[in-house]
Amino acid sequence: MEDHDHSLEMDLQAMMNMAAGRRQSLRWLLAGAALPMLGCGGSSSDSTISADTATSNAGSSNTGSAGTGSTGTGSTGSSSCSVIPEETGGPYPADGTNSNSSGVVNVLNLSGIVRQDIRSSFGGPTAVAAGVPLTIRLRIINANNSCGAAGNFAVYLWHCDREGRYSLYSSGVTGQNYLRGVQEADANGDLTFTTIFPGCYDGRMPHVHFEVYRTLAASASASNRIKTSQFTFPMATLNEVYATSGYSSSVSNLARTSYAADMVFSDGYSLQLASVSGNVADGYVATLTLAIAA
Fold it and tell me: At CA 264, angle to CA 98 and CA 267, rounded to 5?
């Protein structure tokens, strides 16, 4: 298995190198200081968020348990309509907001990025990410419209491979762009991605990143995003998946972290915990409702 070149220390450095306001930088410095020095789940994870989301992040508060997570800015107060918290997109978004070793990297304007199956690279690169099959089903609802469907909104989604590497950034996969894709929701706000179960890297709980856009056309530019967040998975499912071939490093990384220690989920994650069904042999289905204030 290849070694990957990112660690919690490197991610924190990447976060500080990215453009952000002083207020948000301090937030992540404090979050990093609270993590155990031995590291536990987060190599690549997370840079500071952009300045245009700093205010809404500062206004949200989680209570530190799965059952009482943040309602986020614009929440109606109803659990079914609680706005999913704004989170960092991390240092590896590939949405044109930062650079890799070759310069600014942006998959949003590439032909082929709008796709349901994100396991393979596209537009030239040919690698296919291996791992336990995972179907991600998202439903977008509008907390500003009585929890009604946010039909025809679009989602850009990305995550690491089973070795914990992010395409376009991590050693060994800088020339690949797999596990990234855009989907348009239907009139009911529903959309689906076909992918593989992400691994657990040192310093973070396993997670998936996403950005929400008002329209598919708007998703061509990260400046149009109206929500950036992350979601995670139940521990029982993680233990099942990581007992399979190819996920050996995830076992030890997961054992060293927890939701309580995670820099994103430590302040509550009830709105960011996907419901999962299935098994290793047949694959899993992760389902999550995303309430946004649109």
Answer: 150
Average pLDDT over residues 150-179: 98
249-258 mean pLDDT: 98
Sign of the CA dihedral with 244 first, then 288, 32, and 15 last: positive
Which residue segments constitute the domains of the chain, with CATH numbers given? 8-292 (2.60.130.10)
| Contact call for residues 104 and 96 (beta carbons, < 8 A) | yes
Identify the pLDDT of residue 262. 98
Query: Rounded to whole angstroms, how far apart are CA atoms 160 and 229?
Result: 15
In this prediction, residues 182-206 reach a mean pLDDT of 98
Residue 139 pairs in a beta bridge with 190, 289
Q: Answer whether 118's CB lies under 8 Å from 180's CB.
A: yes
| Cα–Cα distance, 226 to 293 (Å, whole number) | 9
Burial 152-164 (b: 16+ CB within 10 A, else e): bbbbbbbbbbbbb
Residue with tokens 């291996």: 130
Nearest Cα residue to 47 out of 166, 173, 216: 166
